[in-house]
Amino acid sequence: MRIIAPLLLVLASSAALAEDAPPPAPPATLLPAATVVARWTAEEARQGVAADARFFYAMSNNVIGKYDKRSGKRVARFEGDKRLYPHMNSCVVEGTELVCAASNHPGIPMASAVEFFDTATLHHVRSVALPPFSGSLTWIERRGPDWFAMFANYDEGRGGEPGHDHRWTLLMRLDAQFRPLQSWHMPEDVLALFAPMSCSGGSWGPDGLLYITGHDRAEMYAMRLPEAGTVLEHVATIPLPTGGQAFTWDRSATRTIWSIERKTHAVVASTIPRVTR
Fold first, then answer.
1. Is-contact 185 170, C-beta < 8 A?
2. Quick one: which of 84, 140, 189, 260 is 20 to 30 A from 12 by CA?
């Protein structure tokens, strides 16, 4: 009995934990692949791309190139001091400004900032150094009066901080002064696809869903804020013609995104199938 009793206690505890565990989420829908509608080459296309009605903006750490969407010709360029701009990961057009998510990646401790540029000239306008949030800022986008920002975490050896691996990746809602309001974690199935890296791109779609990409995989994930709790809902997966990295919705075209293929410096516009779930 001295051996059996502890064993029975362990089995009973395991059964209780199993009963308390939440049921698994329903599997996400796999949609048809995105359809390529345009392809250009931009030497700056290493981290991500932004777009407005006339131009796309390819970026690589401390460099941004502005290109005409019809001809693919570069019309402006910014190159900043690498000490000040070690890692701009993504940008998004907000009115007449290009808003860029920047960090000291792969430096530790992680530090993040939001950099603002004039879209007409690519002149740097201002910088907002963020408080020491957990993670490295990879993308930020305004929605209504607030900002939604992704703070990436990586496994050790891939730019992560000790004790914080890819499972610590966090979506945060910030107010107009960049103060935290809410936060959500990624579901386990998406985290497994991110590993050992994290979320590189994100943007709210025209259907009200949040679309995100990882670091490498050639696919996009449609996400929904949960009705309750702290974990985002994975609604659908969409195969892409490019691998991971930061992308942008083209607000001047129907269900069109711009993304990059970093190995070839390609900038690709493609249409995304509708999510019906």
1. yes
2. 189
DSSP 262: T
Beta strand pairing call for 97-103 and 87-94: antiparallel
Please report whether residue 136 resides in a domain: yes
**Identity of the residue numbered 82:** K
Token pair, residue 111, equals 């530090």
- pLDDT tens column, 25-84: 788 999 999 999 999 999 999 999 999 999 999 999 999 999 999 999 999 999 999 999
Is there a domain that residue 35 lies in? yes
Cβ(47)–Cβ(64) below 8 Å: no
Q: Around Cβ 144, how many Cβ atoms within 10 Å?
A: 8
The residues with which 3 forms a beta bridge, in sequence order, are none
Q: 277 in a domain, yes or no?
A: no
Query: pLDDT category, 10, cuts 50, 70, 90?
Result: very low
pLDDT above 90 covers what percent of the chain?
85
Q: Is the pLDDT of residue 4 over 80?
A: no
